[in-house]
Request: fold
Amino acid sequence: MPNAFQERQARYADLLVRVGVNIQPGQCLMLSAELAHALFARMVSDAAYRAGAKYVHVAWVDMPLSRSRILHSNPDYLEYVPNFEIVRHRQAVDETWARLALVGDEFPDILEDVLPNLVRRVQVARSQALRFYNDALTSNRMQWCVAGVPNIN
Reply:
């Protein structure tokens, strides 16, 4: 039986789906979340399917893995963005998926000791490769919402 906190979380998940992104029956949802938000991401997925979502794709964010790439990868590879990332974002735009980003850094200082220019190289390459996607979001051709989620830490 869910406790009061879990019931509030379930209501929040439902609010994000029905009001935040206004998911429509038959529409797909792209959800991003850190691993620390897994339980809440599952609640959002449940709410989306109950609201009629066709499919929910969760793009997990794992900052320790991102840090590892930046620190240990060949620097020549930092601008590499695999084609499947572009293809899945293109499909989301073409099919007008809704987009929900759950934020609340599990490791807020994890890149503190990483050279900023290396982080920037990764971010700029991804941003350029997915410009069409960001344009669709910022011009409101897709429903989107960014929502805070607390962390235990």
